[in-house]
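PROTEIN DATA CARD
Card holder: Alpha/beta fold hydrolase
Chain length: 235
Origin: Kutzneria chonburiensis
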Amino acid sequence: MTTQPTAILVHGAFADASSWNGVIADLTDRGFPVIAAANPLRSLSTDAATIKALVQSIDGPVVLVGHSYGGAVISNAAVGQANVKALVSIAGFLPEQGESALELSNKFPGSTLGDTLQTVALPDGNTDLYVRQELFPNQFAADVPASQAALMAATQRPVAEAALTGGSDSPAWHDLPVWTLIPTGDKNIPPAAQHFMAKRAEATVVEIADASHAVLVSQPKAVADLIADAAGAQA
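Structure generated from the sequence above:
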């Protein structure tokens, strides 16, 4: 029997590892080992180094999966890691060298995220960003049940402004196969931007009509299907 690759799931900004719960349950039922990593959300370089260290601890093949900003993290973390066999971007960023998440989200019209943000000045001089709780459900998770979206808003992890403005190193998508899921109702990263990045990376693309940025929560089976496809293609 062929051993399934380990799926390492990397959450993005304004979320935590629990956003993968439905996807984890589905993948586990299919026999995949799964780790939902804790993404620090501090800077692209340090976040990628954290995920790279986790990848290096795995004995065997890995499929790296990133949601939103997590897509940029996995694009950097996978560089030079021979056991990473594929990248899967879920409503995510696939930056070219030097590009930032903020730059890419503003490359095409449609993002309404900026108007929903609340800033918190940190003692070290950095700035944390939150989505205002009353605006979070509509902005981030419009197709998630209201009670669940409210919990997501209250438990969101802030992202450091530096993480969204930092430029990417040379990304692993130049050398690895990529699968991308694009929710057409995304209000954070315009679908046009996601298509632009997917085309550039020569990704296999699946669209989910009218799904929100939180498609991993609202449509966990579709996300798990794409991850399984990516893993199966490497078998």
